[in-house]
Design a protein that fits this description.
By secondary structure, the protein is mainly α. About 75% of the residues lie in helices and about 0% in strands. It has 2 domains: about 55 residues, no CATH class; about 160 residues. It binds fe (ii) ion (2 copies).
């Protein structure tokens, strides 16, 4: 059972299903996962006891075997990185361009009545897409291969180089995470106007899916991959 003093990131490492509970309440567990449940809830203006009750209820269901998740702490780093690339990076590579077209299309069709919101969504989404494309290239071409080489042949010099890279990646995670939170804010939690068409509604659904997938993705890197490298300093 979890308590209010537990940190968000650690809770999701132990119980991945917690990510959905935290996301539902607007608690950032991936980029700012080092806060306790009590502090994060207070900052988000939500009831910590309510979040905790929901979290422990979800955990009890998972404990009964209805829902199981992979324990990445026991796997090699290479396996975790392969999983991230083949699941979350592949998702972004497939999704970002078509979703960009949808975001442009709803601005064109609904801009006359909902221009203020949709112009912001268009700008924020395109900033997210550009940042994320560069970030994925960096991870796939430079950073993950360097971590993989370090895992095979660990030494103090390459560990320091890896730790320096991680700082940069964490800062980039913060930026893309903030852009997604801003999209949620300007759309008032993806609330559709009464005159929204099917494309409008589908676009908001896909933006929410992008948010969920990206938060799970960043969580695996920030709260599982990077801490194991930092721990190897000792
Ligand atoms: Fe990544
Ligand atoms: Fe990343």
């Amino acid at each position: 059972m979890f308590e209010q003093t537990h940190q968000l990131g650690e809770v999701v490492v132990q119980f991945p299903g917690a990510g959905e509970v935290f996301q539902r309440h607007g608690l950032d567990y991936c980029c700012r996962g080092n806060r306790s449940i009590a502090v994060a809830a207070q900052q988000a203006g939500v009831d910590a006891e309510g979040v905790l009750a929901e979290l422990n209820a979800a955990y009890r269901i998972a404990e009964n075997g209805v829902h199981t998740d992979h324990d990445w702490q026991k796997e090699r780093l290479q396996a975790l990185m392969d999983y991230v690339v083949h699941t979350h990076h592949a998702y972004l590579h497939k999704t970002m361009a078509p979703l960009g077209e949808l975001v442009t299309k709803i601005l064109r069709v609904h801009g006359a009545h909902h221009g203020e919101t949709l112009r912001q969504v268009h700008q924020l989404y395109n900033q997210f897409k550009m940042n994320m494309e560069e970030h994925l290239i960096k991870e796939e071409e430079v950073d993950f291969p360097m971590i993989a080489r370090y895992e095979i042949q660990p030494d103090a010099n390459s560990l320091q180089a890896v730790l320096n890279l991680i700082q940069g990646l964490e800062a980039e995670h913060q930026e893309v995470g903030d852009l997604l939170r801003e999209i949620r804010r300007v759309t008032e939690d993806f609330t559709l106007p009464a005159d929204a068409c099917a494309t409008f509604s589908y676009t908001y659904d896909k933006l929410q899916e992008l948010e969920s997938d990206t938060f799970r993705h960043i969580h695996l890197e920030n709260n599982l991959l990077f801490p194991r490298l930092a721990a190897s300093v000792a």
